[in-house]
Specification:
With 462 residues, the chain is of the alpha+beta class. It has 14 helices and 19 strands. Bound molecules: 3,4-dihydroxyphenylalanine.
């Protein structure tokens, strides 16, 4: 029999036994349901509104599916959102049309469920390429997977008529879990297509395509021999002039982005590489803490990809970059798991108010937080910022409780309509750097803060 359950925002259709069903009905259905999802293979998965029959390729887990929709790259003040905005803003500034509007459009909430066709075939990734293996990707079934790179959306967006765009989102790869690897991370991908008229504005005699090239690429999915795909000169269809001009523009823009992010003095180098979807291809590396680190991959798009998307008279460049990698370097964040943390001690360190000036991350203690609210009535005729300054309260808390207070936020202000008295509520997060604090200990400290507030500010605890 089938039972449909919602687990972590995606629904799993399970095959379960009569006994399990009775237990399920008898006890808390949701709790039992969660237990049942782990060992059994669901018959169907409902993800983001789509229903997918499972098969021998299915290897997504409820834990992985729970990341769908979290959209850390869209969360205000999150370091990944800051990275997204800095990249997008750079591209908005780097390319403008005649009216001064940004040329690039941004897609940052596309569904991460894609087809094998989108993730691999459309990008000319050979059918026996290692990246397609079940051990490397999260498959929903034989035909669908959680995208392994944001490049998966290229053909769909170009087919829709776009010629300058950025895609930002999370990607899913099976990998070990350590301080730099997490099975879900974020990428930004970009495509820029140009026509002959635009590219050769100042040299109208030049051509994008070789005269000898017939215009049809016999077999778009043919696997290039390794000597051919590593041929860093050009694809047979393109003229050398077209490729060199595109390469120059692309490298100029990407070095510009790197300097924008890491400062004008950052040391960088270009390294030849291979991607199935670009030729020639490069990686950009930066010199950081005595090491060369790869920050992005890019290249001249294979013309077969443009042809498949119905574009015949343009040449394009594309690149892809990992956001966690950039943020870890830029903010000095030591562990990739922190990007998934809801700990306010982590999140409160970043703010998108000033995107350019970001402080380095300060390690938070790993002992648990304790959060207590404190509400009080201010004396008559006193209001926040009119007789009572929250900063004074913060100083008082610091003097009473010292460094065990990790964060304080003013969470509520309220003026009573009849008495005219003002009330405030502060949320205080306690966390000791070296040990776990007991609730009794925290309550005692909280009481001392309350008493000191009454004494110093003449307030009335609510
Ligand atoms: N998709 C590649 C990856 O995940 C990165 C990449 C390389 C994207 C070159 C591109 C590109 O668009 O042109 O490693």
């Amino acid at each position: 029999m089938l039972l449909t359950l919602r687990v972590h925002g995606s629904r799993l259709c399970l095959g379960i036994t009569g006994q399990q069903r009775r237990r399920l009905l008898a006890s808390s259905a949701a709790e039992e349901a969660k237990k049942l999802t782990t060992p059994q293979q669901p018959l169907q998965l409902e993800i983001n509104g789509g229903t997918y029959a499972t098969d021998s390729w299915t290897n997504v887990t409820p834990k992985i599916l729970s990341h769908l929709g979290l959209n850390k790259h869209m969360q205000r003040d999150h370091p990944l959102s800051i990275m997204r905005q800095r990249i997008v803003n750079y591209f908005y500034g780097a390319y403008r049309n005649q009216r001064g509007n940004p040329l690039f459009s941004v897609y940052d909430q596309l569904n991460p469920v894609v087809t094998v066709q989108q993730n691999f075939d459309n990008l000319l990734i050979p059918s026996d390429h290692v990246s397609r293996q079940k051990s490397d990707c999260y498959y929903i079934n034989r035909e669908h997977l959680l995208r392994a790179h944001t490049t998966a959306h290229q053909v769909q967006l170009i087919s829709g008529g776009l010629d300058n765009f950025l895609v930002v989102g999370e990607v899913y790869r099976r990998d070990e879990i350590d301080s730099t690897h997490y099975p879900v991370f974020h990428q930004a991908d970009a495509v820029r297509l140009v026509t002959k008229d635009k590219l050769f504005e100042r040299n109208p005699g030049l051509e994008l395509f070789e005269e000898t090239w017939s215009g049809s690429l016999a077999d778009p999915t043919r696997i290039l021999s390794s000597s051919k795909c590593m041929d860093q000169t050009k694809q047979p269809c393109h003229t050398l002039e077209a490729v060199k001009l595109m390469e120059h523009e692309m490298k100029h823009v990407l070095v510009g982005l790197t300097k924008e992010l890491f400062g004008p003095r950052i040391k960088y180098r270009w390294v030849d590489t291979y991607f199935p979807f670009t030729q020639p291809s490069w990686e950009l590396e930066i010199y950081f803490k005595d090491n060369w680190l790869e920050v992005l991959g890019c290249g001249i798009m294979r013309h077969e990809i443009l042809q498949q998307a119905g574009v015949h008279q343009s040449i394009g460049y594309a690149f892809g970059v990992g956001l966690e990698r950039l943020a870890m370097i830029l903010f000095d964040i030591p562990d990739i798991r922190l990007f998934w943390s809801n700990d306010s001690g982590f999140l409160s360190q970043f703010s998108e108010q000033d995107l350019q000036n970001q402080p380095k991350y300060k390690a938070i203690s790993h002992y648990p937080q304790c959060t207590n609210d404190l509400s009080f009535w201010l004396p008559p005729d006193v209001e926040v910022d009119a007789g009572f300054s929250p900063n004074d309260f913060y100083d008082l808390v610091r003097s009473v409780a010292g460094d065990v207070v990790e964060q304080i936020r003013l969470v509520d202000k309220f003026k009573h309509p009849k008495t005219g008295k003002s009330s405030v509520c502060f949320r205080i997060v306690y966390r000791h750097m070296e040990r776990t604090m007991t609730q009794t200990e925290v309550n005692e400290m909280h009481k001392q803060i309350a008493d000191a507030s009454v004494e110093s500010f003449n307030v009335q605890i609510r």
